[in-house]
Amino acid sequence: MENNQTAFLARIRAALGKENEPQRAGEAVSSFPDDTVILQMLADRSREEQLVLLRQLIANAGALNLTVHACTSLAGAAECIAALAGDSEPEFGTRREIIMHDHPLLQALDLEPLLTAQGCTLHLSRHADPEVRCNTLNASVGITAPAWGIAESATIVQLTRPGQPRSTSLVPSIHIAVLALSHLVASLTEVYALIRQEHDLDSLVFISGPSKTADIEAHMVHGAHGPRAMHLIVLIDAPDIDEYS
């Protein structure tokens, strides 16, 4: 195998016109920081630094057709969600059905009275609920609580857990994600350090804006394989999200 690898790398160097350059020693190749270093850096990150990441996230979200809403309280986030749900029209049928992750942070928003006033019916994606599949298929809006957001790519990371299936973010026409500012990280390097701390992880999905494809004549279409619209609500001054994990 080593001979195959050596031959392969030699062909790469030749293709790049660098066959006569000395090979770098393995120690010279840059490596990622140890996870403990990254985790400590995240713990020490100041609110001002987090707000810089939020501005970076907003700047990068536009190209992805991702709408970011910065809210300063749980009540403000709840009102924002109710307004988005009330303004949306079901893509199929006329019933305003909403499916929401069974997550303590989302339940703390106390959305049901606000959504009922908008003519919407709210369902939780409870793990043991035999109707969860039907409710998900009927829902035009899915509300999730992602584990983290990544500023450099305007991406959220959704972990699959009991009561928090991938279908909530993938099946409904509109996806609304709620993220605490403290769970916004700078890069993939940081988020992978966090993912490696997870135990018994079923699966995860990285989401950068609504579903999109340009397969047909390079014409961009949203909603072909998933949500046609996506909103990310960032809670700036919410209580510590760890209370709701």
Describe this structure in words.
The protein has 245 residues and is α/β, with parallel strands linked by helices. It has a single domain (30-244), classed as Rossmann fold (3-Layer(aba) Sandwich), CATH 3.40.50.10420. Helix content is 33%, strand content 20%. The strands form 3 sheets. Strands 1-12-7-4-2-3 form a 6-stranded parallel sheet, sandwiched between helices. Strand 10 and strand 11 (221-222) form a beta hairpin. Helix 2 (35-44) crosses helix 9. The longest helix has 15 residues, at 47-61. It starts with a helix and ends in a 10-residue tail after the last strand.
Jot down its keywords:
245 residues; alpha/beta; Rossmann fold; six-stranded parallel sheet; four-stranded mixed sheet; 9 helices; 12 strands
CATH topology: Rossmann fold
> Would you report the number of β strands?
12
* Secondary-structure element pattern, one letter each: HHHEHEHHEHEEEHEEHEEEE
Mean pLDDT: 87
Radius of gyration: 21 Å
- Overall structural class, as computed from helix and strand content, comes to alpha/beta
Strand content: 15-25%
CATH-defined superfamily: NagB/RpiA/CoA transferase-like
Strand order of the largest sheet: 1-12-7-4-2-3
Helix content: 25-40%
What is the 3D shape?
Answer: globular
